[in-house]
Every structure is written in C-alpha cells, then in structure tokens.
Amino acid sequence: MSSWIVIGIIVLIALWLIMIYNGLVGGRNQAQTAWSQIDVQLKRRHDLIPNLVQVVKDAMGYEQETLTKVIQARNAAAAASGPAQAGPAEAALSQATRGLLGLVESYPQLKANENVKQLQEELASTENKIAFARQFYNDSVNAYNNRRQSFPAVLAAASLGFGPIDLFSMPETEREVPKVALR
Amino acid sequence: MAATTDFVAAQAVNRRNTVLLLALLTVLAAVTGYVVGWLLQGEATNEVSLMSRFGLVGAGLMAAASVVWSLVSLAFGDRMVLAMADAKPIEKQDAPQLYNVVEEMSLAAGVPMPKVMILETEVPNAFATGTRPGHGTIAVTRGLLDKMNRDELQGVVAHEMAHLANLDTRYMVVVGVTVGLIALVSDVILRTMQWGGPSSRRRDDGGKGSSGAGLLIVLLIVVAILAPIAAKAVQMAVSRQREYLADATSVQFTRNPNGLISALTKLGEAAAPFPGVSRATQHLFIVNPVQAMTSRTPAFLATHPDIADRIARLRNLGA
Fold first, then answer.
1. Number of separate domains in chain A
2. Residue B47 is a catalytic residue
3. What is the pLDDT of residue B43?
4. Is A55 among the domain residues?
5. Low-confidence winner among A77-81, B15-19, B166-170, B266-270 (lowest mean pLDDT)
6. CB-CB: which of B5, B97, B103 is closest to A139?
7. Range picked from A45-59, B17-31, B84-98, B216-230 for highest mean pLDDT
8. Which residues of A touch B103 (CB under 8 A)?
9. Which residues have C-beta within 8 Å of that of residue A62, sequence separation ≥ 6?
10. Which of these ranges, A14-23, A94-103, B21-30, B115-124, has the smallest mean pLDDT?
11. Which domains occur in chain B, in start order?
12. H or E element: which one contains B289?
C-alpha cells in the first residue's frame, strides 16, 4: 500500500519536472523565433538605406554630411551581431535614419520624387517593424527569464542549460532633433 | 502571472473553450437525437420505455451530424465568408502601405503573416477570419483605405490581428455552429410534436409512466422555445466580450490608443450596410455594418458593444 503512495509521488514529481522543462523549452524557442524576426527587419533596413541615400544623393547632386553619417552608422550596424552588440549600433542607425528622413522632408523636390516616396514608406515601415518585433521579442524574453528565475525552475534551469537571454535595448544616446542643414 | 503576454493567455483560454464547446455540442446533439427518437418510438409503439432503440439510433446520428457540421465549418468557414463578402486578395504592390501595416502588426503579435484582402466598397470597415492558427485573412474595404490615416489604419489592422492572435475567429465559428444547432434542434423537437401529436394520445391511453412523460414533454417544449433565445444571447455576449478584448489587445500591439479611438469615431459615423454583408457575417466586422441602420436591437442581442463605450474604455487605457 505505502509503496503505491511512494510510486504515485514519484510519478507526480516526474510530471511536474516535465512540465517545467517543457515550459522553459517553449519560452526559449519563442524568444529565438522572435529574435530571428528582428534580424530579418534589421537586414532589410541595412539593404534599404543605401538605396535611399543613393536617390537623395542623385537628386541633390552632391554628398552631404547627413548621408555620410547614415552610411557609417549602417555599416557599423551591419557588422554587429547578437542583441547586446546590435542594440547600440542599431540605435545609432535609427537616429541617423531619422535625420535622413528629416532631410527628405525639408526638400520639396525630394518629397515629390516617386522613388523617394516609396523608399520613405518602406523605411518608415521597416522602422516600425523593428520596433514591433523588438516589443514582441522583449516580452517573450521577459516571460522566459521570469520563468527560469522563478521557484522551483531556478533550482534546475542553469544545470539543464537554460541560460538567461539578453533583452534587445536600443539606448537613445541623444534625444535632440537631428540637424538638417545644407552646406 | 504577468509573465506570459496577455494574448498568448487569451489564445490558450479560447483553445480550451473551443474543445469544451465542441464536446458540449456533441453531447447536446446526442441527447436531442435520443429524445426525438424516443418520442417517435413512443408514437409508433404506444409504449414509453426509457431505453429506446430509436433513441439510440437518433443519438448516434445527431452526434455524427454535429461532428461533421463542426468539421465542415472549421475547414470551409473562412472561405465561405470571404466568398460571400466578395473579398479580393492583393499583393504588396497593390496597396503597399496596407501591406506594410499588416506586416508590422503580425510582428507585434508574433503570428505568421495573414493574407490581405480588399472589399470594393466605399463604406469603411474591416474583418478578420481564419480557423487555423497561421492561416488567417485580414480584409479591409476600399473606403477604409481612403478615409483613414496611417495611425488609424494601424489601429484597425491591430484590432483584426488581435482577433487572429486570440484565435477569436475560430472560437466564434464554433460558437456559431453551436447556436445554429441548438436552434435547429429546438425546431425539430417542436415540429416532431406538432406533427405526431404523441403527447396527448399517450396521456389518454394511460400507459405506465405516461403522466411523468407528459410533464417531461411540457418541459421539453418550454426548453425548446427558450433554448435558442438563451443561446443567441450567450453568443452575442461572447461576441461583445471578444470585441472589447480585441480593442485592448490592439492597443497592446500599437501602444497608441489614439489611432484606434479616432478610427472608431470615423467608423461609427460612416457605418452602413454594403453588398456582400448580411446578418450571417455582421458579427465579423470591426463595427457592425447592419446594426447601424437598425439601432433598435436590444443591447443583449447586439453583436458589438456601443462604439461610445468602446472609445470610453480605450481612453481608460491612458490615451
């Protein structure tokens, strides 16, 4: 009789451990999928920016400081990998991109250009997509990290290979409005 | 338990409720099949025993019918709806901004990109449909594209994406089937008794247990009359609740209540029926296209909450 109770308790504990394990696996996979979505959008932005820069350069006839900055930021961001490295680089690129979009806004002949209009919508949408994908990624990572740090998962998570996942933060270095000057 | 995102939890609840409803539906169908068979056998043999062979056959048939009906609606429901509304699929180059906004919201919701369709009408409105996760469709009218700015469009698309992410679209199909079946079954019961008139004759014969059966039959009639009304009221309550939730989830996606608020204001002013819309599909849209004209529908039978009410709740989210 008592042996049955012992077996029952063991089975319950095993089921419980399986649930914890599966929960951690699910959370980690969701975070990884979410990261790959951000990655897709970041790459898309890296591809779009040179096009817009080229069109703006052609329309204006000469290269301007803002454009050089954008390309520099873009190359730095393209070289970064992983949430921790990509965060600051992408934040700088976001800022440079806003400067570029602001530049476009202030030149009527650019704004009227069909090509520029299309690139503008694409780039603005990609910015949004990065923001929304980041939102979902960070929510997923938070859920996962909370789960692995909660009792009782915290006892086993590390030894089962469930490490913490980095949030993707894009720190705003300067909040100032990008200067749009043509010299 | 703030760990999981709200819509992931909502999805889990809807999944569970769908299974429960399907089980309930099958049991309900079986019971009714039994009752109808039992009444028919009573009529044929003048004998009322609780174990009825006709009843068992009826139960089996009805259970099978309800399973088939549910499966067919889940498999073809979305295609029927899209065909009825005359929605046309579009590619990215046909409406780049709409397509981009849908992509943005699918990223925010973490669901696969749904199909995008357009209804050619001037009335602004939108709906979502899809009975399998990852195979959704979001359809908007031409009028919506013309009248909304980007933020408003985003709010509307986010609301529809919320229905997909919460799996409301599938849940409501199953609820609809349940309500339809309850109505049908009540109808069958009432007709069976009208046609056979078994109750009165059996009572006169004074067989064993017939007075109990007579009472049971009166009860059955009352239930058959009230059940469809109650079921409809429950369906509409569920539908209104889903709308509130989708509004809230929409803001969770966009983090911008103002877009949806101003979109709802515009939608409320312009709401009108258009070709391809009917009572069968009215509950799918972001604002009810039919009820706008017949605003005398009692609140407990409305598919959607009052727009002013929805806006008030959105303002509470910190607009």
1. 1
2. no
3. 66
4. yes
5. B15-19
6. B5
7. B84-98
8. 125, 129
9. none
10. B21-30
11. 6-83+170-226 (no CATH), 86-167+239-316 (3.30.2010.10)
12. none
Is there a domain that residue A79 lies in?
Answer: yes
pLDDT of res. B210 = 52
Q: What span, in angstroms and rounded, lies between the C-alpha atoms of A140 and A29?
A: 9
Per the CB < 8 A criterion, the answer to whether A174 and A95 are in contact is: yes
CA pseudo-torsion sign B108, B113, B115, B116: positive
CA angle B134, B244, A140 (to 5 degrees): 45
The mean per-residue pLDDT over the stretch B235-254 comes to: 88
User: Do B78 and B169 touch, CB atoms closer than 8 A?
Assistant: yes
pTM: 0.78
DSSP A42-95: HHHHHHHHHHHHHHHHHHHSS--HHHHHHHHHHHHHHH--HHHHHHHHHHHHHH
Q: Shortest CB distance from A135 goes to which of B97, B101, B108?
A: B108
Q: Which of B160, B154, B152 is nearest to B263 (CA)?
A: B152
CA distance A25 to A95: 36
The answer, yes or no, to whether residue B209 has pLDDT greater than 60, is no
| Biggest CA pair distance of chain B | 77
Q: A150 lies in a domain?
A: yes
Q: Which residue has the higher pLDDT, B148 or B208?
A: B148
